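Replication factor A C-terminal domain-containing protein: structure tokens wanted.
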Amino acid sequence: MDSGYWCEGCQKKDEECSVRYIMAVKVSDSTGEAWFSAFNDEAEKMIGCTADELNVLKSEEGEGNEFQTKLKEATWSSHLFRVSVSQQEYNSEKRQRITVRGVAPVDFAAETRLLLQDISKNKKTSQ
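Answer:
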């Protein structure tokens, strides 16, 4: 009835609220794909801006829609994920819940060094 936002946790009314991310992300690599849950801090790293900033872009209208551009930039981008996996049962069906705990950009030079080390180890063991 009044303008503003009500917080159930604090039992307070505020004029402004802070928008936060709760994302379901489909992640794929050469071995397959999976759905991850990503929350605010990790989602900000993937999208490249805060949820408040993205919300402002969504409300702006115009020919060059920056909201869609921001989302397209985040699509098919490479990241290293640290995840936790838990088994849950729902309606007698077991499911995995994968939650993102950390996100980092891919360091291609470091990844290449790791692959070269693995190759040299495999060569030594096969000889």
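The mean pLDDT is 90. The beta strands are 5-7, 12-14, 22-29, 32-39, 79-90, 93-105.

Cheers.
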